[in-house]
Amino acid sequence: MSVDSETVRKIARLARIAVTEDEVPGLTEQLNGILGWIEQLGEVDTKGVEPMASVMPGHLRWRADAVTDGGIPDKVLANAPEATSGFFAVPKVIE
Amino acid sequence: MSNLTDLSLTEMKAGLAARMFSAVELTQAHLDAMAANRHLNAYIVETPELALAQAKAVDDGTRGGPLAGIPLGIKDLFATEGVQTTAGSAILKGFVPRYESGVTANLLRDGAVFLGKLNMDEFAMGSSNETSAFGKVISPWKARGSDAELVPGGSSGGSAAAVAARLCAGATGTDTGGSIRQPAAFVGIAGIKPTYGRASRWGTIAFASSLDQAGPMARSVSDCAHLLTSMCGFDDRDSTSLDLPVPDFAAGLTGAMKGKRVGIPAEYRLDGMDPEIAALWDQGIAWLRSEGAEIVSVSLPHTKYALPTYYIVAPAEASSNLARYDGVRYGNRVTPPGGNVHDMYAATRAAGFGKEVKRRIMIGTYVLSAGFYDAYYTQAQKVRALIARDFELAFQQCDVLLTPTAPSPAFAFGAKADPIAMYLNDVFTVPASLAGLPAMSVPAGLSASGLPLGLQIIGRPLDEMGVLDAGLAIERAAGFTARP
């Protein structure tokens, strides 16, 4: 499987990374280089093998459903590029 | 005492305890060395006032602990309260966390002094430190008869350079596919990645969550053992943190190899392997045999698939983890004139991420996208299971594995312009990362060009002690005393 320039534009859109038309040919070539290399995994017989999502199987813990944090809006907002009245602010979403 | 920075961490502990010098004197000696070596670009931020205040509190007796007064450098991947933390990325320039990471909080609890934040490959994606938005780190080492600048390895390249150049007693590193071990090997120091889950990931900026582990980098195995004991421990804020007691690794360290079985994986002897690396490996085998270990040949048949597996799993997780950098809650924002919120996301990420990070996010986005998920990501997770099973079977025949750390000594800047050539640097370190195993690199010799070479020891899950003991045996036998 190799990607064409249209697919690269689509991936960039999904990844929310603005890509200029000048960048598309180079990216297409680089991504195809890497994809061509990782495709060798297809030759491994994995019939009946369970996919491994974690090196610690079945380890995920539960914790008590209790509030353990909060009440620190100033700290939460301290690094926001834009914050007003205790909220994160973004460019207008609804016209 | 003139050369306080030349002492090992273990010697600094003893000297401070015996009041041969003060914590302030020890810290000041390091701050002076940092100021004299800024050309290495090892530190992104230096925090002299904070460091001296922490050291003074140790001298006053208001701070104590097993690492009281020990000056450390902190990789810029760890959130440090009140001190800029960037992960080496332009997108986080100016980000000042309001919280302390689990690992660094443990070190502060134990009395350590923080000298500053260490440079690194952007979001820990790189093996040469060339991807940092704060400029490349330069290794303090040079090849014999050459003046060419060399890479310190990566991604913990600032940590490696700072420890080797005596700009800190030890440093924190993180290892996703070899980012502690490969740079340690390149600069002639020791570094250990513990078992996945031993060190808290809370407050460590995420790259690939199923692989990321913190660990220490220092100038001896014993120094690493002291730091590892402090860095590890259960943290209920990290869902994969292991709720298990942490041994006192330094106290338990013996270096005894008698009766231990050391496995030599046949598949690591690659076609076209650098003869110097092969010779060093053979030397390491001979050293451990003469220490009384039994050498066993083992097979890890899926080794050749480890790198391509890693370069699906890690970018997939990265594409998800790095989605948080959207210019809303933290980090830098770019809004094109008249742009809406979607334009803002795309412009912010285009401006804030470097080339390698964008490449990996896009690979990750592609392998997780509809129609390709099973062929790439699910298949990679299955091969990962086979790689982990290879290790399980091998450890039925042996206690630790011995391999080279990296396929070559440190290289020059720009030498690996092709991404895949750069990825191949991690050929010996990535398999243990995929299996979540403890692994360390120990300096074992010099190349013909006079550059450090490391050997890697890989252990069973939770057997950091066995890894450190084998590391100490190598360290003693090698008697590595070369300095940059």
UniProtKB/TrEMBL annotation, chain A:
Class in the EC hierarchy, top level: ligase
Its EC number is: 6.3.5.-
Query: Quick check: keyword Protease in the entry?
Result: no
* Catalysed transformations (reactions): L-glutamyl-tRNA(Gln) + L-glutamine + ATP + H2O = L-glutaminyl-tRNA(Gln) + L-glutamate + ADP + phosphate + H(+); L-aspartyl-tRNA(Asn) + L-glutamine + ATP + H2O = L-asparaginyl-tRNA(Asn) + L-glutamate + ADP + phosphate + 2 H(+)
Q: Name one Pfam family in it.
A: GatC
**One of this protein's GO BP terms?**
regulation of translational fidelity
Q: Which UniProt keywords apply?
A: ATP-binding, Ligase, Nucleotide-binding, Protein biosynthesis, Transferase
Q: Which GO terms describe its molecular function?
A: asparaginyl-tRNA synthase (glutamine-hydrolyzing) activity; ATP binding; glutaminyl-tRNA synthase (glutamine-hydrolyzing) activity; transferase activity
Q: Which HAMAP family match?
A: GatC
Q: How does it assemble?
A: Heterotrimer of A, B and C subunits.
> NCBIfam families attached here?
gatC
Q: What does this protein do?
A: Allows the formation of correctly charged Asn-tRNA(Asn) or Gln-tRNA(Gln) through the transamidation of misacylated Asp-tRNA(Asn) or Glu-tRNA(Gln) in organisms which lack either or both of asparaginyl-tRNA or glutaminyl-tRNA synthetases. The reaction takes place in the presence of glutamine and ATP through an activated phospho-Asp-tRNA(Asn) or phospho-Glu-tRNA(Gln).
Concerning its family, UniProt says: Belongs to the GatC family.
State what protein this is by name: Aspartyl/glutamyl-tRNA(Asn/Gln) amidotransferase subunit C
Q: What is the lineage of its organism?
A: Bacteria, Pseudomonadati, Pseudomonadota, Alphaproteobacteria, Sphingomonadales
UniProtKB/TrEMBL annotation, chain B:
Q: Does the keyword Cytoplasm apply?
A: no
Q: Does the keyword Metal-binding apply?
A: no
The EC number of this protein is 6.3.5.7
Identify a single GO molecular function assigned to this protein: ATP binding
Query: Which ranges form a coiled coil?
Result: none
The enzyme's first-digit EC class, named in words, is: ligase
Highest taxon of the lineage: Bacteria
Known catalysed reaction(s)? L-glutamyl-tRNA(Gln) + L-glutamine + ATP + H2O = L-glutaminyl-tRNA(Gln) + L-glutamate + ADP + phosphate + H(+)
Q: Where is the active site?
A: 75, 155, 179
Please provide, in alphabetical order, the Gene Ontology terms of the cellular component aspect for this entry: glutamyl-tRNA(Gln) amidotransferase complex
Query: What keywords is this UniProt entry annotated with?
Result: ATP-binding, Ligase, Nucleotide-binding, Protein biosynthesis, Transferase
Q: What does this protein do?
A: Allows the formation of correctly charged Gln-tRNA(Gln) through the transamidation of misacylated Glu-tRNA(Gln) in organisms which lack glutaminyl-tRNA synthetase. The reaction takes place in the presence of glutamine and ATP through an activated gamma-phospho-Glu-tRNA(Gln).
Protein's UniProt name: Glutamyl-tRNA(Gln) amidotransferase subunit A
- Gene designation per UniProt: gatA
